[in-house]
Amino acid sequence: RRFTLSTLRDYGMGKRTIEDKITEECSVLTRTIETYAGKPFDVTTILSAAVSNIIVCILLGKRYEYEDAVFLRLLKIVNENLQLSGSPAALLYNFFPKLGSLLNASRKISKNEK
Q1: pLDDT per position in the chain (114 positions), as tens?
Q2: C-alpha distances in angstroms, 12 versus 7, 60, 90?
Q3: Which of 16, 38, 54, 82 is deepest in the core (most CB within 10 A)?
Q4: What does the alpha-carbon distance between residue 111 and residue 100 come to, in Å, rounded to a whole number?
Q5: How wide is the angle at C-alpha 55 spanned by C-alphas 49 and 56, nearest 5°?
Q6: Which of 106, 108, 81 is nearest to 93 (CA)?
Q7: Burial of 113 from C-beta contacts in 10 A (0-12 / 13-18 / 19+)
Q8: From residue 3, how far is each of 12, 16, 46, 58 by CA, in Å?
Q9: CA atoms of 32 and 16, how far apart (whole Å)
Q10: DSSP state of 61
């Protein structure tokens, strides 16, 4: 617990900077949503990008545009790996690693790691 709190403090927890970064990202998110002018759209990618941008901004001091191809590809890979890691195939692989060659999920996760 002590380690976690000291590490988070090093990254600015409890300081005004994190709040400023979150506020800035919220205003970008709001402007992006307003561009749809009441038309239906999928919020999944935009919300994932906003949350990821806050984390990246705290850790790296940089934010990405929502249309950035590299950023969108990384979001897709992370999302895919999260879905695969909870799949029945991945759970089987965790219990029986020798089945890895038979399971598509482990190959796909390994490919995404590269």
Answers
A1: 888 878 777 766 666 678 888 899 999 999 999 999 889 988 988 999 999 999 898 888 889 999 999 999 999 998 888 887 777 777 777 777 777 666 665 566 666 666
A2: 9, 12, 36
A3: 54
A4: 13
A5: 80
A6: 106
A7: exposed
A8: 14, 21, 32, 18
A9: 24
A10: S
Contact 45, 64 (CB under 8 A): no
HEC profile of 2-49? HHHHHHHHHCCCCCHHHHHHHHHHHHHHHHHHHCCCCCCCCHHHHHHH
The radius of gyration of the chain's CA atoms, rounded to the nearest angstrom, is 18
Give the total residue count for the chain.
Answer: 114
